[in-house]
Amino acid sequence: MSIVYYSSPVGILEIKSTESHITQLLFKESAKTSSENIPAVMKECIRQLDEYFSGNRNDFTLPLAPEGTNFQCSVWKALQTIPYGQTISYKELAERVENPKACRAVGTANGRNPIAIIIPCHRVIAANGTLGGYAGGLDIKTILLKLEGVDRF
């Protein structure tokens, strides 16, 4: 497992990977020591994050390997179908995983997304049109949505 710290416009991001897959991207308060030998997949992740934050990338094309339950993985997979610059509700997300009554469970899985930004959990909002929650904080969620052209927040 390799770890690198990336200084982004929304703060420090801790990126973890195997030799071939990104496994985590988490918000951190501060950077620690990064791994010495960074795999190619991690270098590509940093390149794509640079492009995303500069407004030159709408979709990430990285091999991902988030760890979770089957249900969580189905939610995280569904999150990846939300187009750049668009939002959906937790109810819509529950419908996408073919479990329309599981809004609360979908919200919990969304909050446990281990690969923030790349798996775009920030694109899920409350049914009443408010931001809802976000593991990185609502300020960061607002910044990410505005970066993607969602200006109503």
CATH class value of the largest domain = Mainly Alpha
Q: Could you give the distance between the termini?
A: 37 Å
- What Rg do the Cα atoms give? 15 Å
N-to-C series of helices and strands: EEEHHEHHEH
Number of domains: 2
3D structure, described in words:
The protein is α+β, with helices and mostly antiparallel strands and 153 residues long. It has two domains: 2-53, no CATH class; 70-147, Orthogonal Bundle (Arc Repressor Mutant, subunit A). The chain has helices at residues 40-53, 70-79, 90-96, 103-111, 138-147, and strands at residues 2-8, 11-17, 22-28, 88-89, 124-125. The strands form two sheets. It has a three-stranded antiparallel β-sheet, with helices on one face. Strand 2 (11-17) and strand 3 form a beta hairpin. Helix 3 (90-96) crosses helix 4. The protein starts with a strand and ends in a 6-residue tail after the last helix. 27% of the residues are buried. The mean pLDDT is 94.
Secondary-structure topology with pairs:
Layout: E1 2-8, E2 11-17, E3 22-28, H1 40-53, H2 70-79, E4 88-89, H3 90-96, H4 103-111, E5 124-125, H5 138-147
Parallel strand pairs: 4-5
Antiparallel strand pairs: 1-2, 2-3
Helix pairs in contact: 3-4
Structure keywords:
5 helices; Arc Repressor Mutant, subunit A; three-stranded antiparallel β-sheet; alpha+beta; two-stranded parallel ribbon; single chain; 153 residues
Short recap of the structure:
Helices cover 33% and strands 16% of the residues. It has 153 residues and is α+β, with helices and mostly antiparallel strands.
